[in-house]
Amino acid sequence: MSKVYFTDFRTSLNENVPQKLLRLIKKAGIEDIDFNKKFAAIKIHFGEPGNLAFLRPNFAKVVADEVKALGGNPFLTDCNTLYVGRRKNALEHLESAQENGFSPLSTGCQMIIADGLKGTDETYVKISGENIKHIKEAKIGTAVMDADIVISLNHFKGHESAGFGGAIKNIGMGCGSRAGKMEMHYSGKPVVKTKYCVRCRMCFKNCAFGAISFPAPEKKAEINQDKCVGCGRCIGSCNFDAISPKNDSSNLLLNEKMAEYSLAVLQNRPSFHINIINNVSPYCDCHAENDAAIVPDIGMLAFFDPVALDMACADLVNKATPIPNSALGESKRDLHDHFKNIFPDTDWMSCLTHAEKIGVGEIKYELVQI
C-alpha cells in the first residue's frame, strides 16, 4: 500500500507555504532519487491566459530549487494544446506562461515546450502488456522523453471530460504531442472548417500520406478519412485554425487512453508526483475562465505513485463541504460524488482502475499527515 504524504495550508511564524511544501516533498522521499547531473522535467500546466486558478510559479520554484540542490538540472515543461487558444504553438505558449508569471526568475529554471514550435516534435514510445487496450505506440513531446527524471506538479481540480484533473491527467494528456492528444480525445481524424480555409495549401504540403486535396481550383481543402493516419501535422501547419479534430470518443475511452499514455511517460525511469488542492475550479486550467472554486482549499500531497496520489485527492475533495456560491454548491444532483454532481457523464474512477491494471500505480493508499 502506497503512503501518500499530506499537509494542509495552515502556516506559522516559523514556516510559510513554500517551506511547508519543501518539507512535504522531502518527507515523501524526493531525496531518494539520484538527480546528480541529470535532466529533470517538471511537468506543469502554465494556465490559459484569463484563468486565475492555475498553480502560482512559487510552487514550481520550491521543486526546481530542491532538484538543483540535489545536483539535477530542472526545467518546466508542457506540450501545446490541440484546441485553438493561446497555447497552441510554442511562441504563444511561452508568452502565455510569462504573462501568468512564469520565468527563470520566478521559478528558478528554464521553460521548454516539449513538443516544439507547432506540436509536432514528438517521440514514439512503445508500451505493451496484457491489459493494454488502446495504445501501442504513444506520441509524447520529445523534451519530456529526453529527460532522465519526470516530476509532475499538478493542480488538482475538476474536468469536464475526465471528471477531475490530477497527476494522471497532467502526465498522460499533458505530455502527449498534438497527435497524441488527438489519439486520446478523438479517433484521430481531423476535419476542415471550410469557412476558415484560405487555400494556402500548407496542410497539403505537410501531409505525408496524400490525405489532403484541393479537388478544384476554387475548392477548399478536403481530407480523405481513409488515407488520414491522424498525425495532426495539418492542424499544426494551419495558421488559420481551419482544421480541427472530430469529436467522437467517449469519456471512458479518454480516461483509459490517458492512463496508457501515463505509462508511456513514466516507464523505465524515476518519477515523483505532487498534487496541490487549491482553487479547485470545476473546469480544467485550459479554460480562459476558471469559475469559482467548488470546495475550500485543502492542502498539498506528494509521493512516487500517481494513482494513489490522485485517489487520495479525490477522497479528500469528496469529503469536503461544497462552497454554496459555486457550480457544485448550486448542483441539484446527489450522486455522492462531487465530480459527478457537476459532470454526471464522467467516470474518473475508470482512469485510476485502468492505470492500476497496467501497472502505473495502485489505488489503495495510506494517508500520512505531516
TrEMBL record:
Signal sequence range: none
Alphabetic keyword roster: 4Fe-4S, Iron, Iron-sulfur, Metal-binding
Keyword Iron-sulfur tagged: yes
Entries under Gene3D superfamilies matching the protein: 3.30.70.20, 3.40.50.11440
Family matches, as PROSITE patterns: 4FE4S_FER_2
Cross-referenced Pfam families: DUF362, Fer4_7
GO molecular function list: 4 iron, 4 sulfur cluster binding; metal ion binding
Record function comment: Ferredoxins are iron-sulfur proteins that transfer electrons in a wide variety of metabolic reactions.
Protein name, as recorded: Ferredoxin
Domain of life where this protein originates: Bacteria
Iron-sulfur listed as a keyword: yes
Boundaries of every 4Fe-4S ferredoxin-type domain copy: 188-217, 219-248
The species this protein was found in: Criibacterium bergeronii
InterPro entries xrefs: 4Fe4S_Fe-S-bd, DUF362, PSI_iron-sulfur_center
